[in-house]
Amino acid sequence: MEIRPTTDKDLDVFVDTLHAAFGLFPETPAEGGGGLWWSALETDRNLLAMTADGRPVGTAGAYSFELTLPGEIIVPASGVTAVGVLPSHRRQGVLSAMMRHQLAELRARGEFLSVLLASEALIYGRFGYGPATYTQRLTVPRHQAAFALPRARGTADAPATGSDTGSIELLRRAECGAILEEVYDRYRRAQPGALSRPHRWWALGAGRPPVSPAPRYVAVHRDADGVPDGYASYSLESGTLTVDETIATDDAVSAALDRFVLGHDLVTQVVFKHLPPGHPLRWQLADFRAGQVSDDDWLWVRLLDVPRALTARGWFTDGELVLDVDDPFLGEHGRYLLTVRDGKADCVPTDREPDLSLDVRDLGSVYLGGTAPSTLVRAGHIRAHHPGAAALADALFRADRPPHCLHWF
């Protein structure tokens, strides 16, 4: 078997092979050529697995993204995508060979972080990826959508949280592409776990709404000066209003947009597809039990260079921790002294006794601050070598705010 990079000439073969792996057929291109998710593929970052007689049997790709780390630090990250193996060639080592080849290529590019969205939770842990951000789906019956009166009192100089002095304008998706792109970019730069949406994604309409040109209404929030600072993209069908995503620069903007969609007429229920953990909406409803919540993982993270990754993010507690990290997929092992002072970290090899022993997938899960190391200790995945090690790790790895990723790729 040969694993080789693709060129522009291979795009149709790549797309056809990927769809066949999932038992699907490619969609018909939309008029004007926009809106196909694969239109943003970077062909120089795609891989094809070929049999000895030249038949394509597997695919794997990667996008060039920026990822926001705790501390509002922005770094490059590879977004692994389009991974599939034909049913006729599964369980023959094709997937493992592609993933190993891809990780080697990412390292050769000088990259130290890789991320993906896992189609199946059982697959990617063995390649060193761990779930690192989580998302909630909240369904609110329209007749239970009343907001509670805020109990916090503000002053003229310090208004209560949730006070809004802006306005909302209703637009169609086709009318506000530039606004969506600008507001999302401002949002993702301050949100740990968020990925960039490169301009070409918006220009090509690649991905899911509101990036794609699919018909949507968009509630655009503007501040007191008329500057857009939030939006909610939604569709309405058979009495269900579904919010693709709500982007807001602060809680007051978020609350205003939530009130807008929850107050829509001729609606039986409102579904918020992607809310971050700890979102205040349930608490803002008069009936706390009105919202039905389901949780899911979203962004999975893999560290390709442990010292570079740990020194890249921001930190909020001083301390020292010795991490014994095993990477069974790549056959690697390292022990590192992590020293944090004044928000910055130093990470160097050490022979000191470890505080924690963990798999690289578990390090990926705790990296953005969305999973507490003590949770994985209690689950039996991370070994704490002495009392207090887990609590220290929790304090060190916490983020300034819960990580959240909305972008689909």
UniProtKB/TrEMBL annotation:
Acetyl-CoA binds at residues 83-85, 91-96, 119-120. PANTHER family: N-ACETYLTRANSFERASE EIS. Signal peptide: none annotated. One of its GO terms (molecular function) is aminoglycoside N-acetyltransferase activity. The keyword Acyltransferase applies. Residues 1-198 form the N-acetyltransferase domain. The active site is at residues 124, 409. Belongs to the acetyltransferase Eis family. HAMAP family: Eis. InterPro entries: Acetyltransf_17 (IPR041380), Acetyltransferase_Eis (IPR051554), Acyl_CoA_acyltransferase (IPR016181), Eis_dom (IPR025559), GNAT_dom (IPR000182), NAcTrfase_Eis (IPR022902), SCP2_sterol-bd_dom_sf (IPR036527). This is GNAT family N-acetyltransferase. CDD domains: NAT_SF. Homohexamer; trimer of dimers. Keywords: Acyltransferase, Transferase. One of its GO terms (biological process) is aminoglycoside antibiotic catabolic process.
